[in-house]
Amino acid sequence: MAAVVVLALPLLLASGSLASELLIFALAAMACNLLLGYTGLMSFGQGIFYGLGSYASGLLLLHLKAPLSLALGGAMAVGALVAAFVGWFAIRQRGVYFVMLTLAFSQMFYFLAYSLVDITGGDNGLLDIVRPSPALMGTVLFDIGSPWRYYTLVAGIFLVLFVLLQRLSESRFGRTLLAIRDNEARAAAVGYDVRAFKLAAFVVSGAVTGLAGGLHAMLSGIAPLSSIEYHVSETILLMTVIGGTGKLFASVIGAAAYVLASDWLSSIWPRWMMLLGLLLIAVALYMQKGIWGVLERAARSLRGNAGDRMAATTVEPGKEQA
C-alpha cells in the first residue's frame, strides 16, 4: 500500500514539494505511532527530534559541506541520541507525568535553540541550506535539484523505512511493545525489561523523526526555530491520531489527510486554522479510531453484506424440487 501511495502522488498532486512534505510528515507520524500506538506512550517531545534533525543536517551541510548520506545520517544520529537522553528520564513516569516531562523537555530544547544564536541562528534559524545530490565515490548518481527529483529521493527513503518499521512492528520486539501497552505490569511479571523496551522504542522513534527533520530542512532550504516548537509535536501527534494508532499505514493516511487538508483550507480562507480545528473536533467526536478505523468498519460491513447475499442465494441440498 505504501508503494501505491508513492506512485499515486505524482499523478494526483501538481506540486512536488507538497508531495515530498507529505511523505516526510508520514515518516514522523509513523515514528510517533511506534510510541503511541505500539507502546502506549503519548510523547510531546517529537518536535525535539524533528527540530534537532533539521539543525544537524543544516549545520553539516552549511559548515562542513557534508555529502547527502552524512547529513541525513547525522540527523538520525542526533535524533536517536537526544531521544535516548529524553527517554531515559521520561519513561520513569507514567500517564500525565510522562506527558508533562516530554512537554517540559520540548520547551527546554526550544529555549536552548532560541538562545544559542551562534549555532542555530536563533529567531532566524539556519538559512540557505543546500541540497546535495546523492553520490557514490565522487560520482553524482542523479540530480535532486528540482522538486520532483527530490521527491524521488524522499520516496525511496520513505519506502525503505516503511518496510523496516513494518518488520520491526511485526517482530518479537513489536509484539513485546504491544504487550507493554496492553498490560505493563504483566509484561514485567513474565520477565521483560519494560524500561529497556520503552527506551529502545524511543531511540528508534527519535532516529526516524530526526531523519524527517533533516529531509524537511533540505526541502525548504531552511531550518527555522519553529521546527523545534512544541507545536510540531502537536502536529505530529494529530497526524498519528487522525490516521489511527497501532497501524503504520494509518499514520501515512493521517499525514496525508492533515497536509492536504491544510493546503486546501489555506487556499480558501486566511484563517484556515479555525476550519482545521472544526475538522479535528469532528474527527475526535465521530472517528475515535481514526480514518483507518472507519475504513476497517466499512470493509467489515461490505464483507458482511456480501456474505449475506451469498447465503441468501445458496440453495440447501434436497430443496431444489421444493
Low-confidence regions? none
Total number of helical segments? 14
Share of helical residues: over 70%
- Please state the oligomeric state of the protein chains shown: single chain
Mean pLDDT: 89
Q: What overall form do the CA principal axes indicate?
A: globular
Q: What structural class results from the helix and strand content?
A: mainly alpha
> How many individual β-strands?
2
End-to-end CA span? 48 Å
Main β sheet profile: 2 strands, antiparallel
Rounded radius of gyration (Å): 22 Å
Report the sheet-strand fraction: under 5%
Placed side by side, the strands forming the largest sheet appear as 1-2
The ordered H/E elements are HHHHHHEEHHHHHHHH
What's the topology here?
Layout: H1 2-12, H2 16-39, H3 46-63, H4 68-90, H5 95-115, H6 117-120, E1 135-136, E2 139-140, H7 147-170, H8 172-182, H9 184-189, H10 194-220, H11 230-243, H12 248-268, H13 272-286, H14 290-313
Antiparallel strand pairs: 1-2
3D architecture notes:
This protein is mostly helical and 322 residues long. 75% of the residues lie in helices and 1% in strands. It contains 14 helices and two strands. The chain has helices spanning 2-12, 16-39, 46-63, 68-90, 95-115, 117-120, 147-170, 172-182, 184-189, 194-220, 230-243, 248-268, 272-286, 290-313, and strands spanning 135-136, 139-140. A two-stranded antiparallel sheet has the order 1-2. Helix 1 packs antiparallel against helix 7 and helix 2 packs antiparallel against helix 10 (194-220). The chain is globular and about 70 Å long. The model has no long low-confidence stretch (mean pLDDT 89).
